[in-house]
Design brief:
The chain is α/β, with parallel strands linked by helices. Helices cover about 50% and strands about 15% of the residues. The chain has 13 helices and 9 strands. About 50% of the residues are buried.
Length: about 290
């Protein structure tokens, strides 16, 4: 059993923290939302009045925050957590943020003798609740076994991508590809439907052929094809368009910083941004089918 401070109890962080409680760990949580904290208290966690209080004398600090500025604010500066922690604590930041901030926090943690890894996740809310997330870890190799020991109670696939920031780069690459093959899947299905094909039959054909992909097989975007997919429930719940736009923006930052021209990634970001601007930000990202249908 480990002692864990969990900071950030949003749609992903909440169920992740609950799985740590179920795993037998002593979890202390902090979030600005009192209702989110209450939900964790009911699950068996302790609730702190501040992030600093939650992180006192723990084995792990795990954070799941909206953006890089929140992560930097939590760990860096005169009042950041790095000022109160020592080498007995390992920091795992599960937020999806810019790689530059992850590298900055990782460098500061290393200088303070504190183990740090950026550990963004893939799998969405359902996987967070089921404890089947994938973690993409960036940081020193010596810290990775400590990360694996606790992350295994929240996920089933845990990868060491490289040094600090590498987890964010891997996440950016993955979600850019996810957006691209979701758009392609929607285009193919709609083109078939407009020419008289049944989307369920066409999906079966493509799943058995070279067009097979995750969006088609696990998360079919056409309503009525897959009962458990968001598409068959008015595109709710799921991985929101707002979050996909955020992730595609982070992927674009990675491409720009490495002077890489990524035309399909840019186009995917443009299409999802237009879809978001039309008032669809809270829908699942597979709802891009609606834009393509016109």
């Amino acid at each position: 059993m480990a002692t864990v401070a969990f900071i950030g109890l949003g749609n992903m962080g909440g169920p992740m923290a609950i799985n740590l409680v179920k795993g037998g760990h002593a979890v202390t949580v902090f979030d600005l939302s009192s209702s989110a904290c209450e939900q964790l208290a009911q699950a068996g966690a302790s609730v702190a009045d501040s992030a600093a209080q939650a992180a006192r004398d723990v084995d792990y600090v795990i954070s799941m925050l909206p953006a890089g500025k929140h992560v930097a604010g939590l760990y860096l500066g005169g009042e950041g957590l790095l000022q109160q922690l020592d080498g007995s604590t390992t920091i795992l930041d599960c937020s999806t943020i810019d790689a530059a901030t992850a590298r900055e926090v990782g460098k500061a943690a290393t200088a303070a003798g504190i183990g740090f890894m950026d550990t963004p996740v893939s799998g969405g809310v359902a996987a967070a609740a089921a404890g089947t997330l994938a973690f993409m870890c960036g940081g020193e190799a010596g810290t990775f076994p400590k990360a694996q020991a606790i992350l295994s109670d929240m996920g089933k696939n845990i990868f060491h991508a490289g040094p600090a920031g590498a987890g964010q780069v891997a996440k950016g690459c993955n979600n850019m590809l996810l957006a691209i093959h979701m758009i392609g899947t929607c285009e193919a299905l709609e083109m078939g439907v407009r020419n008289g094909l049944d989307p369920k039959v066409l999906s079966q054909i493509m799943q058995a052929s070279s067009g097979r992909n995750w969006s088609l097989e696990v998360y079919n975007p056409y309503p009525g094809v897959m009962d458990n997919a968001p598409a068959s429930n008015d595109y709710k719940p799921g991985f929101m368009v707002d979050l996909m736009v955020k992730d595609l923006g982070l992927a674009q930052q990675i491409a720009n910083q490495s002077e890489f021209e990524n035309p399909l990634g840019r186009l995917a970001r443009e299409l999802y941004t237009e879809h978001q601007s039309a008032g669809n930000g809270q829908l699942d990202f597979s709802s891009i089918l609606q834009k393509l249908k016109g």
